[in-house]
Amino acid sequence: MASTHNIDALSGPPFRHLSICRLPVEMLLSIANLLENKDLIRLGCTCAKLRKIMEDVLYRCPDLDPWDWDRKTYSKSAPSKIVPMKDTLEKRPDLARGVQELELGPRKTTVPIELAVMPALIAQSTPLCGSIEAHICEYFLAGALLHLTPNLRTLKLILHGTEMGKDKPLQKFFGPKVDDRKTDLSVIPGLRHLTTLHFLSNTDHHFQTLWATLPALREVQIRGIYTISDENVSQGPVMVRKLRLDALSPVLSPRDRRHSGWSTFLRHFSVLEELQVQIIPDYRKTNSSEVLGHGLLGSYSTLVNMIGHLRSVLTVLDLRLEHYDPTSFLDFVTPFCPSSLKEFSALKFLRIPYDGLFAKNATPSPSAQDCLARVLPECLERLEVLFPLLDIYNHFDRFLEHPQKTRFALKDVVYHCSNARGHPFEQFMYLSDPHPTFQRLRASNIDVQFHYRKQDRRPGWEEYDKATYALAKWLANGGNAYEGSIFADQVDNGGDVDQFEVVILPEGLGCFDLTPHGSIVRG
């Protein structure tokens, strides 16, 4: 097939006679999915068969968000995308049945609608005197779209700005008669078969638990929403298997005022298998009692205790932090209580910051040699540690000496290094390799991996890898004279990496140490 760069060549009359139109519909759909929308539209103008393919692809996942992701701008005055989509789906039920994913970004603004277009909505509108138009809230029109898409599987609701304040989105979408506790949302055709719900906001909107009671819903993602109510819903069980949440750092303390709301909300999820919680510092509060600090300490054990009812079903617990997120709140986080995770008999995957597992600069004493073994469940297969310190090898050393180590299913250990917190990547990795515990982990069939951001890796470190690895191996094992090159930082060179040729003789070795930047210091 011609490339998308020469798509204009396909719009002429000869193209309609090409053999591509004889391909099966499934193959044409796969090809169409590789094209950009503008090229797809041009392609659909060539013949009736390709027009049908174009419509199927374009209307399968329509994007009705006013946010321009290319320009990273949000326009309140841009023409509504929801009104023409609703008009089209009303006239073309065949296209409405093909919508499987829908991204809605309604605005508070009202939209002028001609009275002859949607007379059924006149009761919900405010007629303008002397005009043939009515003004209808864009949120209500977005809710009306969900009545036209019976095969919808994925819904992404994006609530922009502070337009809704603390209002409840259900009433905005479906009218004031919606009851938070009793309304059955499955009667709405677009929600009846919904399996994935993404609820995103850049302000503190109110998430209603009623959304989670949809019978086919299996995955829920709630981003940018930190107020979780403690409402009790009576409309059916919650069958969600995968949940992703954003939480403010004070939720790690049982003294926080939002603790009860979070506890009640999480108790609704009785069959949850995967939970991802991203902790975000709360810098909006001025009251020192509402932020983690010297007056308020938190622990990831508090969060784990909220999901104690999932001990036998939870397989993934992801307490992630993005590299761009501030991590200063971790200075006021205390380690896990030993028994917090031990009873999670199905847990296979755990991702957690180093500060959530271990106290800083704490070396396990012989009397506590089974500390890590008492924290990790025996069924855990993969442990990912964020912002690790080299002290973690002391804890693993005690773990490997535990008499019941063979009962643990641990197979993979992943270190997520960052220059923002913990030991920098180059320091952690190149001091890990000669560490005896590092070798013992691999000898015990536990694979060790290092992850880092590309921004944290400076130019020249690819060559530094080879040279420093050879030098570290020579320092660990001894042997003949080492002749080679190493890379070391120069303070007056802006932190760039420069190369130095060195020769080290065994008899003059003395005591050497690798500094945080990989240079060699004679002791």
TrEMBL record:
Domain F-box: 17-62
Name of the protein: F-box domain-containing protein
InterPro entries: F-box-like_dom_sf, F-box_dom, LRR_dom_sf
Alphabetized CDD domains for the sequence: F-box_SF
Organism: Trematosphaeria pertusa
Database matches in Pfam families: F-box-like
Coiled-coil region list: none
